[in-house]
């Protein structure tokens, strides 16, 4: 495993590609000691359905090369699982939106952040 892990860095350059994505996944899995697929939470049901079907509807995506739209390929290979998550449980909202205090505190707790006085 270690040789394969180190070999993945050969040819690493500044152009972001699928190879970079694979290296990041290998690093995270190596550090976590897991071989499970990466779960990508999304609070948009239509988006989750489109990604599961491999279909992305929209006029703006027709000019993007297919090699950059590889989420469906990652799902087929089992590397990524896109799951529906309720908006109130979406941890990305913690960093991108102004939230009600109750939701904010719940999401902070779910990320594992604690105040020092709570640890005693």
Automatic annotation (TrEMBL):
Top-level taxon: Eukaryota
Lineage of the species this protein comes from: Eukaryota, Viridiplantae, Streptophyta, Embryophyta, Tracheophyta
Name of the protein in question: Retrotransposon like protein
